[in-house]
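Hypothesis: this fold can be encoded by more than one sequence.
Test: take the structure tokens below, design a sequence, compare later.
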């Protein structure tokens, strides 16, 4: 008479339960890990940090076009970002001669528990964009480049826990435009107060 799988004794190997007749390496007899209820994956990791917005960019510029880019980070920079120790108020982006997007003058505070791995808090950081997006940005800057700049708008974590940076091709506002922005903001604030 054949022994049922459910009757076989179990063996625990590195967080998974296996039937003893199965090998823990490769699962040859149709065996496989049985979940122990312990979450070993990163799928439902919660990210406490919400979107960090560059409010100064929205006040100083008209945003023409937006792109989402990855960002190359080192050491404890990611932990410092998760803690919210980032400033993008004086930063901007430019296209290098190697056709790479570079973020300049952004500030990521040195992580306290970084150990021996130190980094420059205001170092230039490479942004990751598709080649087609880089071509499109370069073309736009060649055709209408005067008065336009590339500015980081916000930093956030996607559903996979990766840090992303939203950048925009922006045109600088004149002083009267800024006054209009302040006026609109005050009107919105008054309207919200009246609703409450």
């Amino acid at each position: 008479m054949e022994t049922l799988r459910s009757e076989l004794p179990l063996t625990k190997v590195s967080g998974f339960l296996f039937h003893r007749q199965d090998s823990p390496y490769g699962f040859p007899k149709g065996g496989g890990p049985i979940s122990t209820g312990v979450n070993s994956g990163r799928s439902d990791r919660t990210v406490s940090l919400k979107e960090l917005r560059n409010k100064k960019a929205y006040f100083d510029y008209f945003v023409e076009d937006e792109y989402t880019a990855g960002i190359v980070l080192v050491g404890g920079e990611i932990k410092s970002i998760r803690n919210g120790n980032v400033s993008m108020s004086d930063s901007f982006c430019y296209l290098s001669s190697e056709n790479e997007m570079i973020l300049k003058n952004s500030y990521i505070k040195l992580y306290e528990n970084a150990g021996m791995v130190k980094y420059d808090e205001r170092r230039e950081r490479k942004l990751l964009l598709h080649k087609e997006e880089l071509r499109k940005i370069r073309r736009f800057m060649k055709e209408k480049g005067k008065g336009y700049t590339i500015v980081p708008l916000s930093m956030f974590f996607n559903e996979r826990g990766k840090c992303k940076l939203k950048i925009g091709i922006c045109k600088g506002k004149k002083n009267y435009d800024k006054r209009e922005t302040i006026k609109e903001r005050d009107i919105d604030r008054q309207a919200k107060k009246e609703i409450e």
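Residues 175-195 form the longest helix (21 residues). Residues 1-38 form one domain.
Hypothesis status: open.
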